[in-house]
Amino acid sequence: MRSTIICVDDEKLLLTMLYEQLEAWFGNNYLIEKAQSGPDALKILDNCIAAGRDVSVFISDYIMPIMKGDELLIKVRERDPRIKRIMLTGYSAIDGIINAINKAGIYRYMLKPWDNKDLMLTLLEAIKSYEKDKVNAELSKNYEVLYYKYENLYSEKYENYDKLLNAFADACDLRDPDKGDHSHRVAKYAEMIGKAASLEMEDLKVLVQSALLHDVGKLAMSDEELERLKTIKRYDADYNSLRMFQANFSERILENITLSTPLSDNVKYQFETFNGYGPFCLKGLDIPLGARILHIANLYDIVAYKMRNATLREKVVEFVNRGLNYLDTQLTASLLEQLKKEEKAKIID
Fold first, then answer.
1. Distance from first CA to last CA of the chain, Å, rounded?
2. Which of 184, 222, 225, 271 could bridge 243 with an S-S bond, Cβ 3.0-4.6 Å?
3. d(C-alpha 8, C-alpha 15), whole Å
């Protein structure tokens, strides 16, 4: 079912011009509806809602009989706050602008006569924003279903807490199936480093739990954003913003499902670099120990799984080249030492 764009203007000529432009730009993919008054526009909107049809964008003139544009957009917001609301008018009344921003929550305010290029770009941005919000809402809904499904495990004196963490780890890996059982492998490497660093038993347990949940922020990311993460480089302009989004959503989830502040910090700060160029600009030993370990374990597994048919030496060379200047060298060396011992044990066996 095609999504809908609704436009409203009491001036018939201008409404026809706007409608024809919208049809030319978006008619193949969207249903374009028009109305000459606020009440008529609300009837169209109510019919769309009743039919289960999404309305992506609602464009309204300001000065109209019966119902002004800001009043109309307030009612649109009350019916469905997801709709991107645009005020398009030749009358720039300050009170109307303030009302539209504060109460109607408009997406954009544009003056007549409009510039076609500016209008098209605004509409494209509004549609993209609507679709992204829709995807994120669905992901959040899936997260809530998953959370409440396992809530009883969390409440019964935490005796099945590990099952809850493993369920979330499996859900995270399903968001990026190309990497297989990634979260559990990262947990294994993190444990190896933690043992080499002589962590206390309880700290080691928290570290392994952190590793299982290190990708939990991906539950809030769209498919487009996940695809971008597969090709993104640390020096790309959007790297830190994407990682910041992932880190902040991770923190929100972990506030509800974990028993440990260090666990949440480990996951939140795992993308900090030893030279201080990460999302939160932490540097060196200011980065939590668990976060530094997760960074190493995660990067090594990404390299090792991609090169799973290569020798250990080839994997290590690629890993070191990719992590140079970004990782804690002492912890990195301890992982490589453990990997070497593991490889030697396999040969002996």
1. 60
2. 271
3. 7
Residue for token pair 């992932």: 246
- Report residues of the chain scoring pLDDT below 50: 153-154, 157
Architecture of domain 150-348: Orthogonal Bundle (1.10)
In single-letter form, the type of residue at position 300 comes to Y
Segments making up each domain of the chain, as ranges = 3-130, 150-348
Per residue in 276-311, pLDDT (tens digit) is 888 888 988 999 999 999 999 999 998 888 888 888
Looking at residue 148, its pLDDT comes to 60
For 20-148, list the strands marked E by DSSP.
Answer: 30-35, 55-60, 84-89, 108-111
- Predicted pLDDT at 98: 64
CATH number of 3-130: 3.40.50.2300
pLDDT of residue 334: 86
How far from 193 is each of 69, 236, 264, 297, CA to CA, in Å? Answer: 61, 29, 19, 8
Answer whether 243's CB lies under 8 Å from 278's CB: yes
Beta-bridged to residue 109, according to DSSP, are 87
